[in-house]
Design brief:
28-stranded antiparallel sheet; 1% helix
Length: 553
């Protein structure tokens, strides 16, 4: 019932031209009939669903609602519990309610905050402030009778001060947040810092410089001081550290405090047809910010991303190649090194024939850092994927023909020789093929389509093959007031447990009764017919019919 609904900034410059009150939305009444034969029912035999999504607009401020009714559940939802507004007037933007504001990915990076704030952009200045609640406290566990809640109410504020334009700018960002320790018993020995009130202070910058029209330098960095337990009794033994002495003037520091850093920089060139960018990123292990939900840490990576357009814009290519590793502070038993390579190309030979191609290669290799390191746990793998997708389109005055196909091959090769003779190979190969043909009768208003597909999965002690065919079509009748469409497919499976047959069929129709009034009908059939019904394999037939009335206002 508390589904978040975000509303974009409302522009107050044109408020005098806004209508004072408008009301619009949609309403649907849907009935569903269901029947299962050969297996347990997965839903009720009959269901009635009434749903609506009205929206009230007051001088351009939208207030959306959601209404639903079923034979077993009724709900009326209004989004005020997860509702926010960001009205804008010239260079002033105000934030109120639930907002997802982002100053930088390492400080306030899109975390939902219940509060208030403002962003100001007079001329080239870039100023921002946000204050509010980041997390809501969870209730005390009544089963375990725990005296300490699993999470506290977390509040904080963020500041952004910058100067520049969209192409060239420099911002300084600051975040300070901490848990509300109300009800926390400081005399109680806390064995897990996860249940203690924590605090976080993050200072960083974000900048971009565009010069000589086509060149670009961008960078962002942050230092995060994270205290896991604000009231720990463990003494600190490094107060003589000059860095800690300086930081202690601005934030609380104790034995549970840790300082993390994150840094990234990119240098690139981009014109109308060519581009090249070199990126470097380094994020300390356990780097975190209370203003961001998740940040990939313990990573150092170099990446090169070339791109170009050639042959009179008929060839487009973009790719990336790089190296990545973890264990930056040698705290793990092994260091994982990865080679990352990927490329995508689109080739249009003429007005009718074209190709899409893609390739990726990801390699992992662990280097042990300790003498005692189990070879059975070592990861030495490469994952490769190749894909080619040709397409052909031919259009005349009466017909349109579209042929498309795809072939995708992927393989995972495990080079760990520990299991070479004693166990099943951990290599995995996947092959997927697809072919589709569609013909459209332009003057008659209907289309026919058919497709073939095949998939094979081999490795890890299994060999599975699936082949199938599907066919269908759609037609428009009664001066476009009625649209009917149908689709049917048959899939043949071959597994170690035996063969199987799956049949899917659907028939649908949509009829416009009068302007915004429509009737929607659907009939669906699923039949599963395995040759061997032992174990988890079941033979069953499932049918579902739906009839709906829809109104837009």
């Amino acid at each position: 019932m508390l589904a978040p609904i975000l509303v974009g900034a409302q522009n107050l410059n044109d408020i005098k031209n806004q209508k004072p009150f408008t009301f619009n939305g949609a309403l649907e009444v849907r009935t569903i009939g269901y029947q299962m034969s050969g297996a347990a029912d997965r839903r009720n035999p009959f269901a009635l669903i009434v749903s609506g999504s009205p929206t009230v607009s007051i001088y351009g401020w939208d207030v959306p609602f959601s209404i639903s009714y079923t034979d077993k559940h009724t709900s009326f939802q209004q989004p005020f519990n997860q509702f926010g507004l960001s009205p804008t007037y010239k260079w002033i933007t105000l934030h109120a309610g639930y907002r997802n504001v982002s100053f930088s990915p390492y400080t306030l990076g899109g975390h939902t905050m219940l509060g208030a704030g403002v962003e100001l952009t007079p001329k080239k200045f870039r100023l921002g402030f946000m204050y509010g609640r980041l997390n809501k406290a969870t209730a005390i566990d009544t089963l375990t009778q725990a005296l300490v809640p699993q999470s506290f109410t977390r509040k904080g504020y963020a500041i952004k001060v910058g100067y520049g334009t969209e192409k060239s700018y420099f911002d300084i960002n600051y975040l300070k947040a901490k848990d509300d320790s109300t009800g926390f018993d400081r005399s109680r020995q806390i064995t897990s810092f996860n249940t203690a009130p924590a605090g976080n202070t993050v200072l960083g910058y974000r900048g971009q410089l565009t010069f000589l029209k086509y060149f670009l330098i961008e960078s962002e960095a942050a230092a995060s001081l994270y205290t896991r337990n604000l009231y720990t009794t463990i003494p600190i033994d490094s107060l003589n550290d000059p860095i800690l002495k300086t930081l202690k003037k601005f934030a609380p520091i104790n034995a549970t405090s840790e300082l993390y850093t994150a840094f990234s920089v990119g240098v690139g060139y981009r014109d109308k047809k060519y581009g090249l960018k070199v990126n470097y990123k380094r994020i300390d292990p356990e780097f975190k910010s209370m203003g961001a939900y998740f940040i990939t840490s313990d990573i150092e990576a170099w990446t090169i991303t070339p791109s170009f357009i050639a042959w009179k814009n008929r060839l487009n290519f973009s790719g990336s190649i790089g190296l990545q590793k973890d264990n930056l502070q040698n705290q793990k038993n092994a260091t994982n090194k990865r080679f990352i390579g990927a490329g995508n190309a689109s080739l249009q030979l003429n007005d009718k024939l074209g190709f899409d191609l893609s390739y990726s290669n990801y390699a992992n290799n662990q280097s042990p850092n300790t003498v005692r390191f189990a070879d059975s746990l070592r990861i030495v793998q490469t994952t490769q994927m190749y894909s080619i997708m040709p397409r052909y389109v031919l259009t005349t005055d009466k017909y349109s023909h579209t042929l498309s196909a795809a072939a995708t091959l992927s393989n995972l090769n495990d080079f760990n020789q520990f299991f070479a003779d004693a166990a099943i190979s951990r290599n995995m190969d996947t092959q997927q093929f697809f072919f589709n043909y569609n013909i459209g009768f332009l003057k008659d208003g209907f289309n026919l389509n058919t497709s073939l597909n095949a998939t094979r999965l081999k490795g890890m002690g299994t060999d599975q093959t699936y082949t199938g065919i599907s066919f269908g079509g759609d037609v428009v009748l009664l001066k476009s007031m009625l649209r009917a469409y149908t689709n049917h497919s048959i899939t043949f499976g071959k597994q170690p447990e035996g063969r199987s047959l799956i049949f899917n069929s659907s028939i649908n129709a949509k009829y416009t009764v009068y302007r915004r009034h429509t009737l929607d009908f659907g009939l669906y059939l699923l039949r599963n017919d395995p040759k061997n019904t032992t174990g988890l394999q079941q033979k069953y037939t499932e049918m579902r019919g739906e009839l709906a009335y829809q109104l837009k206002f």
